[in-house]
Design brief:
Helix content is 86%, strand content 0%. It is mostly helical. The protein is globular. The chain starts with a helix and ends with a helix.
Length: 245
Amino acid sequence: MREAHTVRKWIIWLFWIAVWQAVHILINNIVIFVGPLDMMAALLDQGRTAGFWITLSHSFFKISLGFLSAFGCGILLGAFAYACPLIRELLEPVMLLVKSVPVASFVILALIWIGSGNLSVFISFLVVVPMIYTSTLAGLMSTSNELLEMASVFSLPLWKRIRFIYIPAVHPYIVSGCRTALGMSWKSGIAAEVIGIPDSSIGEQLYYSKLYLDTAGLFAWTFVIILISAVFERIFLWLLGHIRH
């Protein structure tokens, strides 16, 4: 049954790749739209250069750093907001503001404040924090009152309450929030790089692809973004899944 499901998924992927190639043939203009073979050729050509791997590692490190920092900060802020209603009330307008203001506005402000070097770190951090904060707070608020009363009756130490009551309650909310936050961190981080054009970044390469009408290169870098974000998401969620056990 599992093998049949895997085969079905591969057939679906091959179908859409065939559709992609068919559209490319119909349009017949490599500036407007390239096919999968053109994209792979461009990717292989870039992959032979050291600059490709340097660019890839720089963007990966900065966006991952922004996400991981936001992950830790969001959990801490959510815990503080749960423990102290005053903190929750103080943070509410800030989180609402961060979620409401367009990313482009923050990018322009960040360019003025910190320059382009750490732009993707800051933007991915800013986008992810409210998501993790909201998920953490929602999970903590859903904690069973019966379990908390039992822990109080038996004078259970704080670390045991965290380990056996709070973490199981928060875990599904965090996992759900991270599924969205991981994708948004990469989208916002790369968008920030395209606007700020920091040296040796994927955003810089996307900008130059647009500038020189290198559609194959644009598709190749887009494919790289999808691939590394998917790998990072799979690894992080796998690690997150083992925290509960």
